[in-house]
Write a structure and sequence with these properties.
globular, alpha+beta, 2 domains, Heavy metal transporter, 37% helix
């Protein structure tokens, strides 16, 4: 939409000013997970990282509890951001989980790669006996060896909510409120990004639209991964299992979909 012109009085003089479109000014971009009566919010960047963490758990066949632990840990360690500086634990702490090369987590380049860092976290977590039944503080601390182990429990509710949505266990539980896309999307790039997280999903991309044959919790995990990454990947709509998320409106509404087919449209797609 074109920007509108308005007038203000400055020192007794009338001055023309440009007023931005309302969507450019008032929209605070955010992603929310609603499970039961509770709703939690993250920024789009944080939500994209949470979706990666959950997607890797799905790809590895791990339970949603593993994703809950990992997300809560990353919230505490890095605010779910891929930070390239150390925390109080030491100057070589890096990445989503503030892992340290000096503790054998890998090189700085590796732990600054979210996919690698997440895999390394899960590699350690699954070695913790009965981690699924442990309090999150104990499970996370066994992996992280933090100076502030009790802090992990503070983030268990939002970790559980986002993990439930992003592993597909809570359908249509993730929503993102976003501005209009500023660039043109690429369905093939969306397919490649999804395959990196979930493993090959067999998507068919035509440049502006991606379709994938997925079912059940995997389908909902991939659908809500797409919503979480809508800002970064210029995604405009996500349709699955009789529901559609539309960037312009937010929320999930009823629509007609093919059974077992996930459809993702990116900016530039025709209706």
């Amino acid at each position: 939409m074109l920007a509108a012109l308005g007038v203000v009085v400055v020192g007794g003089s009338v001055v023309a000013v440009q007023q931005l479109d309302q969507s450019e000014v008032l929209v605070r971009e955010r992603c929310s997970a609603t499970v039961g009566a509770n709703t939690f919010e993250l920024t789009p960047t944080q939500a994209g990282n949470a979706a990666l963490i959950s997607g890797v758990a799905v790809n590895r066949g791990l339970p949603a509890r593993a994703a809950s632990i990992a997300i809560a840990t990353a919230i505490q360690e890095s605010r779910l951001e891929n930070i390239d500086y150390g925390d109080d634990a030491g100057p070589d702490s890096r990445g989503l989980f503030q892992q340290r090369p000096s503790q054998g987590w890998g090189t700085q380049e590796q732990i600054m790669t979210p996919l690698y860092a997440t895999g390394a976290f899960y590699d350690a977590l699954v070695e913790v006996p009965d981690y699924e039944s442990l309090p999150i503080t104990e499970a996370a601390q066994t992996v992280q060896r933090s100076a502030f182990p009790q802090a992990y429990a503070d983030h268990e509710p939002e970790g559980r909510a986002f993990a439930s949505a992003l592993t597909g266990n809570s359908p249509a539980a993730l929503d993102c409120t976003l501005r209009e896309p500023t660039g043109t999307g690429d369905a093939l790039a969306v397919s490649i990004a999804a395959d990196e997280v979930f493993g090959p999903l067999g998507g068919a991309a035509d440049g502006t639209r991606l379709t994938m044959d997925v079912t059940g919790t995997l389908g909902w995990a991939a659908a809500q991964w797409a919503v979480a990454n809508a800002s970064a990947l210029h995604i405009t709509t996500v349709s699955y299992s009789g529901l559609e998320w539309a960037r312009a409106d937010g929320g999930w509404t009823s629509t007609t979909t093919e059974p077992g087919t996930l459809t993702i449209a990116v900016a530039g797609a025709t209706p």
